[in-house]
Write a structure and sequence with these properties.
This protein is α+β, with helices and mostly antiparallel strands and about 230 residues long. The protein has two domains: about 130 residues, PH-domain like (Roll), CATH 2.30.29; about 55 residues, no CATH class. It is about 35% helix and about 25% strand. The protein is built from six helices and eleven strands. The chain has a five-stranded antiparallel sheet. Strands 8-7-6-10-9 form a five-stranded antiparallel sheet. This is PH domain-containing protein.
């Protein structure tokens, strides 16, 4: 059995216990942090840098033409409504996406439900997860990437924003902006071991921490760095 992608117009955002077949139990359930989702998936920080750079250029250009710094800053101030609107839209989209998303780990599978306009569900049997990688942010949130067989794998655009960045040709599911990612990763690793009957992979640092971020590999089979 491989990963299965379904789309519904009336799907609930969170998997309920009553939906599970007999013998299947929920081990962990969480929603992504909307602010971290805005920073990572929607690139809010980079958009802010772009707007700032444009404002600086506006100040410099006006000063060059008029010789007045006051006019330069006044001209740049006209960008504030557009900046506020753009940032507000991105934050709203991130909030709505996070609210419509849930990650559910059971003793048999990992379920991802997401989507605002057209909700979708991705069922990944634990037996089909080859390996997993963890990236932890400074606030304790993080991303868990799952390596699954190519057969039946959804496309990058079907998974976005819960797809591993830049893996267009071989998309990998990504549990993005998970609060308490370290504990969540431990539960996923334990479930993989219990499901596959293998030895738990060694936890390791994938590469030096960047901006207080630590990357760790763990797996039911092999560690995998993001």
């Amino acid at each position: 059995m491989s990963a299965q992608m379904d789309e519904f117009d009336d799907i609930k955002p969170v998997v309920g216990r009553e939906e599970l077949p007999k013998g299947e139990t929920i081990l962990w359930q969480e929603r992504p942090d909307w602010w971290r989702l805005a920073l990572t998936a929607f690139r809010l920080k980079w958009i802010g840098v772009w707007f700032l750079g444009f404002a600086v250029w506006k100040v410099g250009s006006t000063h060059h033409d008029t010789g007045s710094w006051a006019l330069g800053f006044a001209d740049a101030a006209t960008l504030l409504p557009a900046i506020g609107f753009g940032v507000g839209v991105i934050m709203l989209l991130a909030f709505l996406m996070a609210r419509s998303t849930s990650f559910t780990l059971t003793n048999r599978r990992l379920v991802m439900r997401y989507g605002v306009a057209l909700p979708a569900q991705l069922n990944i049997p634990l037996s089909d997860i080859d390996s997993a990688g963890l990236k932890v942010n400074g606030d304790g949130s993080g991303d868990i990437v799952l390596s699954i067989p190519k057969k039946g794998r959804p496309s990058y655009f079907q998974l976005w924003p819960y797809a591993r960045p830049w893996k267009f040709g071989s998309a990998e599911p990504l549990l993005r902006a998970v609060p308490g990612a370290g504990e969540a990763a431990r539960l996923v690793a334990d479930a993989l071991v219990a499901s596959q009957g293998g030895a738990r992979g060694a936890v390791r640092n994938a590469r030096p921490a960047d901006e207080k971020r630590a990357e760790t590999g763990f797996a039911g089979a092999q560690p995998a760095a993001m």
